[in-house]
Write a structure and sequence with these properties.
The structure holds two protein chains of two kinds. Chain A contains 23 helices and 15 strands. The chains are: A alpha/beta, B alpha+beta.
Chain lengths: 590, 238
């Protein structure tokens, strides 16, 4: 591919994790050649002395990597349910039409390829898309037509109108995290004054719990990581936020990168780690120049490197760029991915704090958790715990999207009611709220007095609001398809269960569903919840479980009148054999 | 016996050695827990979930759960067998399995486990995936239609043969078994008929050619006795 392929001159895809050189090679090939072809896979395998089948296994696992060439312009339309409601399907159709390219394919002349991709973290300003890794927000049909023209005229993406790429990080309701003001180095100095044990005591007294949603006590993780004998330890900031509807890390990485790096360095000093890794989701590649600039500034200020502020303390931070896999938000899958493997969650025990990255004690925290740890040391545990409830101290950053007057970023004390949040963001005529994304909970208006906190409705921060015009079944079906696409495929119940649920929902939504199918959905969901290997499989049926529990009448109304429907559609099968063999594609059907 | 402890398996005391998984402890005492991806000579994997048992009221894979003193483990209750039946049915509808004409019939662990958990039908609608058959190797057949992605061949090649003939590629429902060769074909790999990986397959995905019917149906491994009595034998290793 020639020059126009490069997204922009300063967009570097380099990752700096020295232990495994697979990732730099994969990213470089994908970016410069438009794919990691079988030939490239062989070259990489030979260079790293790894089996070529393993390299292929990795390439085919991550959907931002491909073994067949992508277009000079690689366009990925975000396909969250909010993008759907914002009209992304009409935009897709317009682009297909104007560009003469089919979804999931590259045009014959190699100019453009078109894909749908899971939520890219812009649910507050959709419909959104990535073009060669750069974010396009608030797409319109008119703009889609204009984009098609620019692509046909081969205008480099760098010369496209800048406002198309504008990301709005407006904070509608600030709090201690979004409004955090930490003078670089001040938290470290304070920590060194206090001593590691006192710092740990502060984190414990503050009652900080993981902000990814699971809510494990942070101080306990720090203690385990510190007290496990080892010659090396690691701190990982999990910025692989893939939960549909979440975008708080996008904002925090933009607005609070210094506080995050300060928190990582603080945690590293307390547990005895000399190295931190920021695992950045592949869809946030465009944040790399900014993040590298902040790191460089900190390095120049003596806040990174072999001698932090001329003390004997050392710490270095690298950024690892992901490649498109929701499952890598799970900490053990993330660690596998960092090690250059497929993102399959590990068996636990051992836990990462005992044996994580490269088998060493590894402290893996959500971006928000690390920023709040720095905050606690700056402002004190009491200030932190003055927000929230006794079991859920502190505040939480919410990513609010959907049918609200003011989508965007909000920070609330934990324990806030759903109703209070809805009032703050200007939601009216609300039918349901998806709290914590598809893996969280779908709630109905009768529950709007419930509280966002670990003891009631835990949340990673995704908060999607649906008004009465929205079709609950379509929402549940969309999330079900998301999980089928993102299942890692390791265990039977999740790999097969998500496919069965997707088919059942397709049948139901087409009006051919039967009562038997509703029973099957419930049973499959229960099997997945009870027997899946990791949290993804255990929660993948939540959208169906929740919507059946609260909106069963909507399902009943959609059933055909017969008790059971035929599982085998002869005509459909024959139609398949009459078609030419399907081309390879990794896209979910629109 | 100072180094042993006891748990309860279906109400009966079961002595185990510290470090045992529930599966290992049960096997040692001659109790059968249905499984597909577990093999006594290979590290625990925990992907098929067929060995799920209820431990103190919670479902766990017995192959990956360490045995602990005082544990109450439920293995052969109707509820657990029903759950396993559904998991096995999922494996059947996910691939293209055709027992009546399969060379492995009667020697197949998937089929034997299906009988053991009382499977009478496939229950779910078949997914009918399109998968590639690799008949390129002169002596060994790879039929992905019958693969259940247990990774026994992947692990046996790595852990027992010191090779890397197989790997999984793709993700979710698109996961498939791939072969380590530039062409991706079995004939260009280093697999031989004496590799453990060639014989470890619990289904009919990896078969030695031209010996499918040396033993008549009716006289095969699981035709004589249920898999619970036959135990841990791999069909091809019997």
């Amino acid at each position: 591919m020639t020059a126009p392929y490069a997204p922009s001159a300063n967009l570097s895809a380099t990752t700096e994790t020295a232990e495994d050189s697979l990732w730099p090679l994969l990213h470089a090939a994908q970016q410069s050649l438009g794919c990691v072809s079988p030939t490239t896979q062989q070259q990489i395998a030979a260079k790293l002395k790894r089996p070529v089948a393993e390299v292929r296994g990795v390439v085919e696992f991550y959907h931002l990597l491909s073994s067949t060439p992508q277009g000079e312009y690689c366009l990925r339309l975000s396909d969250n349910i909010t993008d759907r409601f914002d009209g992304n399907m009409a935009i897709l159709e317009r682009l297909e039409q104007r560009l003469g390219v089919d979804l999931g394919h590259c045009r014959a002349d190699g100019r453009v390829s078109l894909h749908l991709t899971s939520c890219i973290g812009l649910a507050d300003q959709g419909p959104a898309a990535l073009i060669n890794g750069l974010p396009l927000t608030r797409l319109t049909l008119r703009r889609a037509g204009r984009m098609a023209q620019l692509i046909e005229q081969r205008v480099p993406v760098a010369n496209w109108p800048r406002r198309w790429f504008h990301i709005n990080n407006t904070v509608h309701r600030a709090g201690p995290t979004l409004g955090c003001r930490i003078k670089p180095g001040s938290v470290l100095r304070r920590a060194w004054q206090l001593g590691a044990d006192t710092v740990l005591q502060h984190i414990k007294t503050a009652g900080l719990r993981g902000r990814g949603g699971a809510g494990f006590a942070s101080a306990q993780k720090w203690l385990h990581a510190r007290d496990t004998p080892a010659d090396q330890r690691f701190v990982i900031a999990n910025a692989d936020e893939g939960e549909p509807g979440t975008f708080k890390d996008r904002a925090l990485l933009t607005l609070q990168a210094d506080a995050l790096f300060e928190g990582m360095t603080l945690a590293g000093w307390v547990i005895g780690a000399k190295r931190g890794i920021l695992y950045l989701r592949g869809e946030y590649q465009y944040l790399l120049p900014h993040l590298h600039a902040v790191l460089a500034r900190r390095r120049a200020a003596g806040l990174l490197g072999a001698r932090l502020l001329d003390t004997d303390n050392a710490f270095e931070i690298d950024i690892h760029l992901g490649a498109g896999a929701y499952i890598c938000g799970e900490e053990t899958a993330l660690i596998e991915s960092l090690e250059g493997k497929r993102g399959i969650p590990r068996l636990r025990p051992p836990f990462p704090v005992n044996a994580g990255y490269l088998g060493k004690p590894t402290l893996c925290h959500n971006v928000e958790t690390l920023i709040q740890a720095a905050q606690i040391i700056q402002n004190g545990a009491a200030a932190f715990a003055s927000y929230g409830t006794p079991a859920s101290p502190g505040s939480k950053v919410l990513s609010i999207s959907g049918d609200v007057a003011r989508p965007g970023l909000y920070e609330f004390p934990l324990g806030v009611t759903v109703q209070q949040v809805l009032e703050a963001c200007g939601a009216q005529n609300v039918q349901a709220v998806q709290v914590g994304g598809p893996s969280g909970c779908l709630i109905a208006p009768t529950e709007f007095q419930r509280h966002l906190c670990y003891e009631d409705l835990p949340t990673s921060g995704s908060f999607m609001v649906f008004n009465h015009q929205r079709d609950i079944l379509e929402i549940a079906r969309h999330f079900t398809r998301f999980f089928a696409f993102e299942s890692c495929g390791f265990c039977t119940p999740c790999r097969v269960g998500t496919q069965l649920l997707q088919r059942a929902m397709d049948t139901l939504c087409s009006g051919h569903g039967s009562r038997q199918q509703l029973n099957d959905i419930e049973e499959i969901g229960e099997i997945m919840r009870q027997t899946s290997h990791c949290g993804l499989g255990q929660s993948a049926a939540n959208p169906l479980r929740d919507s059946l529990l609260r909106f069963r009448a909507l399902y009943e109304a959609r059933l055909s009148t017969i008790e059971a429907s035929a599982a085998f559609d002869l005509e459909a099968r024959l139609a398949e054999t009459r078609q030419p063999a399907p081309a390879n594609t990794t896209e979910p059907a629109p | 016996m100072s180094n042993t402890a006891t748990l309860l398996l279906d109400g009966n005391p079961l002595a185990f050695t510290p470090g045992d998984s529930i599966m290992q402890a049960a096997a040692r005492a001659g109790h059968y827990i249905p499984h597909l991806c577990y093999h006594p000579e290979l590290g625990a994997h925990g992907s098929c979930r067929v060995c799920s048992v209820k431990v103190n009221g919670r479902l766990m894979a017995s192959c990956t759960t360490p045995a602990e003193a005082g544990m109450v483990v439920e293995n052969l209750s109707d509820a657990i067998q029903q759950l396993r039946r559904r998991l096995v049915q999922m494996l059947f509808v996910e691939g293209n399995h055709f027992c009546p004409s399969c060379e492995r019939s009667g020697n197949c662990q998937l089929q034997a486990v299906a009988y053991f958990v009382g499977m009478q039908d496939s229950h779910f609608a078949h997914l009918y995936p399109q998968r590639e058959l690799d008949a390129s190797h002169p002596e060994i057949l790879l039929d992905r239609d019958r693969c259940i992605q247990c990774e026994l061949c992947v692990r046996a090649s790595r852990e027992l043969d010191g090779k890397h003939v197989f790997a999984l590629a793709g993700r979710g429902g698109k996961t498939q078994l791939v072969v380590d060769a530039p062409s991706g074909l079995l004939k260009d790999s280093t697999l031989t008929t004496s590799d453990r990986a060639t014989h470890v397959c619990p289904v009919g995905a990896i078969l030695i050619k031209r010996q499918g019917y040396t033993r008549p149906i009716g006289e095969r491994l699981y035709d004589q006795a249920t898999i619970a009595c036959v135990g841990h034998h791999q069909p091809d290793e019997a």
